[in-house]
Design brief:
Strand content: 15-25%
Order of helices and strands: EEHHEHEHEHEEHEHEHEHHH
Helix content: 40-55%
Shape: globular
Distance between the termini: 10 Å
Largest sheet: 6 strands, parallel
Number of helices: 11
Radius of gyration: 20 Å
Length: about 280
Amino acid sequence: YIIHYLGAYYPVNLIKENDIITVHDLVKDDYFLSLKNGPLEFSRSILRNRNLNRFKYILKNNPFIIAISNKTARDINKINKTSKIKVIYHHIDKERFKPREKSNAKKLLGLEENINYLLSVGSSRPNKRLDLIKIFAESLPEEWILIKIGASIKSEKILNFKNVNIEKYPLFFNASEAYLHMSDDEGFGRPLLEALGSGIPIIARNTEINKEILENYPIYLEEDTKKYYQKNMNDILQMIKAPLFKKDELNKLLNKYDVNNARKAYIDFYNYVYNEIK
């Protein structure tokens, strides 16, 4: 049998030498940023960092690893230089995340027709940078609002949805002018694919992982200050309103994250592992 473990934390005592594990990322929580999000998030960060150390112990002994990005693969290689690492990207669920008519999506969600919405999705983990999301949102003009799904952010410029219906979730992308991604560090950032599948622009920080996953598609933010956001906001909003926003770059990424590419990569890796251990 080939056993493939998926998930955030792994049963250390169960994993055997020839098992496969998938690594999303090796991001360590920043205690200072987590404390700014409250005592509960601080205690969660302590637990996550402790589990990360346990996970690194597994990586040192496991020969077959799937990483979801080249960045994650490089981070793994610093811990285990002898493992066989296969990079397999996430894929876009094109049945759920696809272009839809914006006005109808707003109507189905009960959103105002005359408001322009941006969307951001994410937890309260320190690397998600809720502080930067808030600063960006509060730099928006009057007729713009940020929709935040997941961890709430207190601001008059932010419309919070802590939990949303799974069927309605894709509509939030269709109702939005663009997706805002402000994370410090990620293994991938799955909502980015949901935004790509929905055909909307992406505004993102200029980070290593964003460059790998999104290539030249986004509008990249070069600084993390309110002054920079305000200075460049009009240009950013004009760009995302442009018809056929970076259509060629979008089509390239839609092909890159096609489900058939992921399916073939998994089958090829399983065959490789089988031939190694038989």
